[in-house]
Design a protein that fits this description.
Layout: H1 6-26, H2 44-63, H3 73-76, H4 86-107, H5 122-144, H6 158-172, E1 194-199, E2 205-209, E3 216-218, E4 226-230, H7 232-239, E5 251-254, H8 256-266
Helix pairs in contact: 1-2, 1-4, 1-5, 2-4, 2-5, 6-7
């Protein structure tokens, strides 16, 4: 799916960054006192530093029209000295989001830049940073659990939820997914291995074919070894490990072990 405009991505990055900023400002006891369950060992402080650093890193790639990898210390060094107070973190996030969206808008979607996966344009980073920021806004909502961004109110807009699933499927179909687990690991592909994901609140569906290499996917509907039904937002959160197949919002029919293995392997890039 390639229907989301560059401008929509940029606006969503800003909006989700604002949600994270609001959570940081309102955190009871300060952001350093609020653990983030989805990111073990992190509090809202580390989460905010990570998001602000990631935005600055992606902004540098786009702004400089980088043609090769750019050091990502800002993404990884969340425990090094940096902004800690709510006001300082709020400013850190605001400046980082503005740098990123400014660089993306100035470049336009077709500007050639280095990307971590096939793509090679600024649009790749607009899309990637939209979904990255959205998931971490969810983390902040889950961590604070109150106020305007409480868990029960968190949702992903339909066009962006569909796009998040499409992006995940594209990453999951990369050849290195099959090699990520190393020798001796349980095989991901094989006869009869198919998955169907259905967003129960829309008509969106994804069919993943693991019967052979390379892994492929489509928006088709068919009988599958395992079928997953859930609201679109919950499907996004499931793929990113913020929901589990055991959650009440998730319905799983068929081979749960295959689903678990696919979620683990297709999400290898989250751990890189």
């Amino acid at each position: 799916m390639d229907d989301v405009s560059h401008g929509v991505y940029c606006a969503e990055i800003s909006a989700r960054a604002d949600e994270l900023r609001a959570a940081v400002r309102s955190a009871e006891g300060g952001p350093g006192a609020v653990p983030v369950a989805a990111c073990p060992g992190w509090t809202l402080t580390e989460l905010a530093r990570h998001v602000g650093g990631t935005h600055r890193w992606a902004a540098r790639i786009v702004r400089t029209r980088a043609t090769e990898p750019v050091p990502h210390d800002l993404v990884d060094d969340v425990s090094s000295p940096g902004p800690e107070s709510p006001a300082a973190l709020d400013d850190w996030l605001a400046v980082g989001a503005a740098e990123l969206t400014g660089a993306l808008r100035e470049a336009g979607p077709d500007a050639a830049v280095w990307t971590v996966a096939p793509g090679g344009t600024a649009r790749f980073w607009a899309r990637r940073m939209t979904h990255e920021t959205t998931v971490h806004a969810a983390d902040a909502a889950f961590a604070t659990g109150a106020g305007p961004f409480a868990v029960r109110e968190f949702a992903v807009r339909e066009e962006l939820g569909r796009d998040a699933l499409d992006e995940w499927m594209g990453f999951g179909a990369l050849p290195r997914v099959l090699k990520a687990a190393g020798p001796g690991a349980a095989p991901l592909t094989g006869p009869g291995r198919t998955l169907q994901l259905h967003a129960s609140d829309t008509d969106a569906e994804w069919l993943v074919d693991l019967t052979r290499e390379p892994v492929t996917w489509s928006h088709a509907h068919d009988k599958a070894a395992v079928t997953v039904r859930a609201p679109l937002t919950d499907l996004v959160l499931l793929l990113y490990g913020r929901r589990t197949p055991a959650d009440t919002s998730i319905e799983v029919y068929g081979d749960e072990e295959l689903l678990t293995l696919w979620l683990e392997r297709s999400g290898f890039w989250l751990r890189k």
